[in-house]
């Protein structure tokens, strides 16, 4: 009968009993997510085929079957629907899992959703809405009556109703009691009535276990107390009394190692323990008191980053089996949440210690106290992320770095602090000045300062440290290995170097001033010869990689590059007088101390010439006149010579000129001293030195032959017939 579909006469004051105020399904959230994914308004729509009639819900869930029959939605129906190739197959599998655990759950969930949808509509629209939702026409009036009788739930109450089963399954019975208190009281929901009765029984059992545990604690029977607390926690998983008692019984004593290690970092606490003690995983908890002093518990991960700075906490790891606590917990020591500075670094210098660190986030202040040979406890003035303290006596200094925090209750809490020691070592006094004085091919270094230290002269291979830079002796390059002569150093030719003075005392050193030294290469093989027109040709061996040379003579100076010299040689306008030519490498390092070897030089004598000619005397009355050879030495004014070459005249038959002084018969020899003394010398030639005709030629001999130019007359005038 239509009026008895719900099991009662409809329309009477108590006709609709047992209306579900909560779906009481732990997986309700998963069901709703799948429902929304399919675009369904309620879960009953997944049970209907598009071509079937309305859905029955009042006295169980039914779907049309056959002509005018109905089929009950039970576990076999849901299993068949889960195997059908329809979009709702996945949702049907979830509903089948729900029905296996509670055969009444599907009807309760569908009815809960339909009543809620009707209550969201105005009263006059509810019959039409029920029909649109697919409810069978015979049950529309009953469902509308149910929507009128069941209390209307607001958003907060709906959340409580839909969370009850999940909290119950997790044994969070304190949470269940809180959720039940949010729901309307006095309703006739048999499932909730049964839930409240079971809840009261569980709490009675737990209260008894807690009482027994406290008595065991008073009797110092830790084993019994722990077992009772564990039994209570297995029944009510969120009972903080049982949890705190269990942690209290199993916490490590002072000085004992803790099975759960809590390591405080800059912004987190890292938990480590032997995870092999549980097959079902672990539940990690942090126990602390809030700003009002109320004991509080929160679940954490192995890396707890939700730190309350300035608070004191304790951690516990509870072994689980099937989601329930399965044994005594592993408990840490108390942790004062006052992170210390990180990466503390201390460096020492001359009468100085510098400290740097990474400051923890949230630290209100950082202080440093120094204790040393000259102080019993001095608080230092800090920079942003460190400190520098000067004027320290040599010796061992201890520094304690403490972080300050504001606790939740407003108190100032300090960290235990980090202690570090650093020894201030004696350092040398620095080198004040460094000078270098060239002395011939050597250089003499001198310096000021560094009275209490050794001074090492070094050549840095790379970037040169600034004067006063603090160094370690082990890092210094070796000293200059130049040979020494009379206290001065002999640098190798062609060197361009920056020499630094370093003050060294034991293992520590201070960089000092620098001086540039350039050592020029010597010029070798210098020679010069005169050319016509007052020029001289200069030749020498170019010194290695020297870029350019400086050539000087009495009348001027010239810079010569290697490229120009190798391409065209070197000619100088020296004039007729004697001239001294000097050639030396030119420095090219600005501001450098230049070590100049002895300059190559050569003395080019004045433009002296020795000329000769035949002088035929007038014919005599009775025969030929004499034939004379006149030899003349000429030099520019003021160009006196100390030495002159010997003049030799050679004759050779024929008209071909002699090629050398040995190529013919020697006719005349005039010493250079005679030419220097007389200037002009005339000698009579022998009458017939060789068969006529013969040709004469003069030559200059001796070491000074190259410095005197021989002026020869026309070869035709030297033929004697």
Please characterize this protein's 3D structure.
This protein is of the alpha+beta class and 721 residues long. Strands 5, 6, 8, 9, 10 and 11 form a 6-stranded antiparallel beta sheet that branches.
Helix content: 10-25%
Number of strands: 43
Q: Tell me the radius of gyration.
A: 60 Å
Give the mean pLDDT.
88
Please outline what is shown here:
The protein is of the alpha+beta class and 721 residues long. It is built from 13 helices and 43 strands.
Write the layout of secondary structure elements.
Elements lengths: L27 H10 L24 E4 L3 E4 L2 H9 L5 H13 L3 H15 L6 H7 L7 H10 L5 H15 L3 H10 L7 H29 L3 H14 L4 H11 L10 E4 L4 E4 L9 E8 L5 E5 L3 E2 L7 E10 L2 E2 L4 E2 L3 E2 L5 E8 L2 E7 L6 E8 L2 E5 L6 E5 L4 E12 L5 E3 L3 E7 L6 E9 L2 E8 L4 E6 L10 E3 L11 E2 L2 E2 L6 E10 L2 E12 L4 E8 L3 E7 L6 E6 L2 E6 H7 L1 E4 L5 E7 L7 E3 L4 E5 L3 E9 L10 E8 L11 E8 L11 E6 L1 H7 L1 E5 L9 E8 L6 E4 L7 E2 L1
Parallel strand pairs: 27-34, 36-42
Antiparallel strand pairs: 1-2, 3-4, 4-7, 5-6, 5-8, 8-9, 8-10, 8-11, 12-13, 13-16, 14-15, 14-17, 17-18, 17-19, 20-21, 22-26, 23-27, 24-25, 26-27, 28-29, 29-32, 30-31, 30-33, 33-35, 36-37, 37-40, 38-39, 38-41, 41-43
